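Fold it.
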Amino acid sequence: MSIAENVAAVQRRIAAAALAAGKRPDEIVLVAATKMNSAERVAEAVSAGIPVCGENRVQELTEKNVQNAYAGAQLHFIGHLQKNKVNKVVGVCQLIQSVDSEELLQLIDTRAKALGIRQDVLLEINIGNENSKSGFNENLLPNILEKLSVLSSVFVRGLMAIPPISNSAGQNRVYFARMRQLFVDNSVKKYDNVSMDFLSMGMSEDFEDAIAEGSNMVRVGSAIFGARVYPSN
């Protein structure tokens, strides 16, 4: 199938999952995870109706942006953001989804302030408490949100999570449900520089389960572009 056909198929699946969850299909934001895809393939996906592109790597983002790969779509950063590359992302991406530490928040705020802008971000939660993954501990989230009042150039738009790798269908729903509760609990509180608008969770293999549990932003790569082929050393 072509990229356009894959995009249409994913959109149909999102619509069905949204309706089953009692939501409108247009309430779910589809982010195409464009890692390891050329500028031409990314542009093809945008032409097929992709509203948001999400990049994992700063170098790829920079190279494709110069080639106008994302023209007509929003650009999000969805990978681990190294502190020394903050300047290449702040002000370039409409949303940084993967903010995983207080130090990174402060660096983003400093850069955004220098540019005279407000940078929208999501806070990444290590919902599986995995040592191999970055992200905030869910129990520390209220404390982190309280501290945001002093960061005037950062605005938190919600939460993001990557649950543990699952071995069977539906296995991650428990993590998605915990994220949804965390999102709801912190949505009812009033914090400066925080508006809980987006709950970003769910990828190609489990985005329907994520939508069923409350996700309103899904990051889909292989279902749109096909399986990634990693270069061998």
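The radius of gyration is 17 Å.
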